Amino acid sequence: MRALVWHGKEDIRCDTVTDPEIEDGRDVIVKVTSCAICGSDLHLFHNFIPAMLPGDVLGHETMGEVVETGHGLNGKLKKGDRVVVPFTIVCGECDQCKRGYFSVCQKSNRKKYLADKVFGHTTAGLFGYSHLTGGYPGGQAEYLRVPFADSTVQKVPDGIPDEKLLFLSDIFPTGWQAAVQADIQPTDTVAIWGCGPVGQMTIRSAILLGAEQVVAIDHLPERLEMAEAGGAITINFDEENVVERLNELTGGEGPEKCIDCIGMESHVTPSMPDTVYDRAKQILLAESDRPHVLREMIYVCRPGGLISIPGVYGGLADKIPMGAAMNKGLTFRMGQTHVQRWTADLLRRIEEEQIDPSFVITHEVPLDKGPEMYRMFRDKQDSCIKVVLKP
Amino acid sequence: MTNLSSMTSLSNITRSKGDPKVIHSGPRSRGIPESLARGLGWFSLGLGLTELLAPRRITRALGMEGKEALVRVYGAREIGSGILSLSVDKNLGLWSRVAGDGLDIATVMTALRPDNPKRDNVVVALALLLGITAVDLIDAQATAVRHSRGAGRKRSYRDRSGFPRGVQASRGAARDFKTPSDLRHAPPLAAVSKRIPAT
Ligand SMILES: [Zn+2]
Ligand SMILES: [Zn+2]
């Protein structure tokens, strides 16, 4: 089959690879009908996530049809089922899974020893996201083996196009959890850094959950325009001072809730000198993550407020103003998304037409255009916000 | 299997029986400008290390004895350019190479004096420097064009609300959602100051 394969920094190829095979009774093979490139895939493209190996198949936003099943699924899945495959692989049996903390499933990472060493304890297995999280081949491919399939996948009905359902695999639940864990109140101002795909979903989630004001921060005109279309007040950080403007919008008090939809690769620009400092340290391997957004959020957040972090961080970040965070009594909530905790509820909201997540798609191309699209998405060319690939 | 890089075959050891393994490679994200930048980056590292560790070899060949300290400084600069050219900010690395080429040429020109017994070597070095400068310039421009932000169509997303019922009708449409107890936060300040009744 064909698949997008990581070969090194900025080197992704559409290779011919062997087909995946069932290994365990709880496995299924999915014939992929749609998959997407995620903003967090760009951290892999840039080789900022440790433990990638040449030959790793990428992709963690996937849906399709079950074409082969293992013998231990207890009748929960059968050939022909239409499924969305969340990026977190979950056993459904461990204590973390039982309390809904799926992204820290204790059993699904088959390379637990690596995660135990690097993170202190293992987290869930993820598709196409380095050997730290299991080295599971991803879904930017024609076929995908899904381990622990009976507890991992979300069955979806026929009659709704892929484009509306695909993002149940990651960015919609991720934006939703980012907003939900901020416990949004009707009087809250919610400030969201980053208007990429996750930022866009977070904006919609905050609007649906009834925030008084949703403020979105970016500098790309097309992304700000999409944010505004979704009901956000926008701040272009190339033109305005983010902290001043946020204070202005909140009577000088600062937003109650701040959400980081950027993560480890903050935009680098001389007008924000700390970003240049971070980039220099990163090149010299003295720091892995560029935490400009964290610094700004801690500074501007209202005392007693909450900081929610769906953006991916990979390793070590420097100069985090812990003094301000501690003295202001901020609450931090972060983590990979517990996708399976939200999918059924969000599927209902799509069916009831509260939201149509396909609004974010700007490019839909065949799989073999994937390598070129990684580059284009990274370089923000052709007003690209979200790429869907069709194998 | 001949076109597989040995790294890929080696890393297949970490894969299980049913995992896909590369048979042969197809279209790739890395174009000629990026590959050339990598080549130039490695060249910078090699040259930089030589300048840093064996400056006398260079000064002797060019009849520039006594300039070893300067050559070492240039070596450090060259390593910096190499690291940048190999990084995601390769364009910056290539332009720093172009600037470095200028410095190199200016410095080697001073050895072009008639009484230098190694004058022939100096002429060859200058020719090489001019050639590499041209390559650096071309690649710096090529990568700038290839990666320029905002290339391609300018599209408008003004109509992409994502809400089939429109934004206004969607504000608070999911208030039926009950925040799970583990994700609740402090009561809003407005509730305390009685702007709204506490929930
Ligand atoms: Zn993702
Ligand atoms: Zn589990």
UniProtKB/TrEMBL annotation, chain A:
What Pfam families would the database entry show? ADH_N, ADH_zinc_N
Q: Does the keyword Metal-binding apply?
A: yes
Does Metal-binding show up as a keyword for this record?
yes
Q: Which residues form the Alcohol dehydrogenase-like N-terminal domain?
A: 26-157
> Which superkingdom?
Bacteria
Under CDD domains, the record lists: FDH_like_1
Q: Which GO terms describe its molecular function?
A: metal ion binding
Cofactor(s) essential for the protein: Zn(2+)
Q: Which UniProt keywords apply?
A: Metal-binding, Zinc
InterPro entries the UniProt entry points to? ADH-like_C, ADH-like_N, GroES-like_sf, NAD(P)-bd_dom_sf
Q: Where is the Alcohol dehydrogenase-like C-terminal domain?
A: 197-268
Its name, as the record gives it, is Glutathione-dependent formaldehyde dehydrogenase
Organism per entry: Methylobacterium soli
